[in-house]
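Ticket closed. Logging final result for Beta-xylanase.
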Amino acid sequence: MRSPFSQGARVLAGSIILLCAGVGAQLDTLAKRAGKVYFGSAVDNPELGDLPYKTLLSNASEFGQLTAGNSLKWETVQPVRGTYKFAGGDEILALAKQNRQLFRGHTCVWHSQLAAWVEAGKFSAKDLTAIIEDHCGRLVGHYKGEMYSWDVVNEAFEDDGSYRKSVFYNTLGTQYFETALRAARKADPNTKLYLNDYNVEGINSKSDAYYTLIKSLIAKKVPIDGFGVQGHLIVGQVPTNIRENFQRFADLGIDVAITELDIRMVLPVTPEKLEQQKRDYAAVIRACKAVKRCVGVTVWDYTDKYSWIPSVFKGEGAALPWDENLKKKPAYDGIASAWLS
Ligand SMILES: *[C@@H]1O[C@H](CO)[C@@H](O)[C@H](O)[C@H]1NC(C)=O
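Final structure:
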């Protein structure tokens, strides 16, 4: 049947219906409607004692996914060789299950927040290989069947695209990626295995290095399912080619996720900076929305109250979509409207 309305009028009516349907909907709901798997948040265990914080975090319409901010890092999980501690991760897993939220694992192999014994031991290549196999195998194996995905190797490159001279690279060269990924796959055949880093949102030397590495891993049939783009960004300085960057990784046949999003500003907060931050959040979300294999977005905690930024970047902060009083900032509407756009 011929519609009495013009194509333009129908598109406009459709957009209005879409906008109305979105009013009042929460961020995970909107992400799913945009075809994504989740919108989520990082959380650290001590914060769970803050009841208003925990209540909002537990709202699965807002957050469909959790990441343990610290409790699955090597120094926490295996502080002493052979002594494993999963209590912190287990607590967050229990909360995620109760709330029906997905859980992302962070992280097996990373040079930072690494237990001191791993470097101090001055291990041979053979021994360090066995240590990685044991650590990733036990960590991923402990959460077998429970994790949506894992950051198997974290922050392996310098900004200039050279390999980071970690104890892993210095001892094993590039072989450690394969060792860690294979150990993770063996421990949980169904979780998605990621490499994860910062300053790889746009196309640059560092994201080029990941592109080359991931291509070679795929060619060698090493298990790799995704590229995690952390997204620690600065207000007014969001790269313009995020979508193109995501698309080239998607074209390799892997997923992409924004895993640690925050967009910081120089303090004090002003209405102008909050408006720019809203536009910046919207730009990042639109890039993920536009790339089919961008599966989801995680903010590195949802409130300025528990942001890592002020302690690491002096004089900067206010990086998240909720303020210190758990009130939504303009950035929240930027995210919501970008999922709807
Ligand atoms: C999540 O938050 C929204 C908005 O405040 C509310 O309408 C909804 O009922 C909450 N959902 C749950 C499961 O608490």
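The first strand starts at residue 38 and ends at 43. No further action required.
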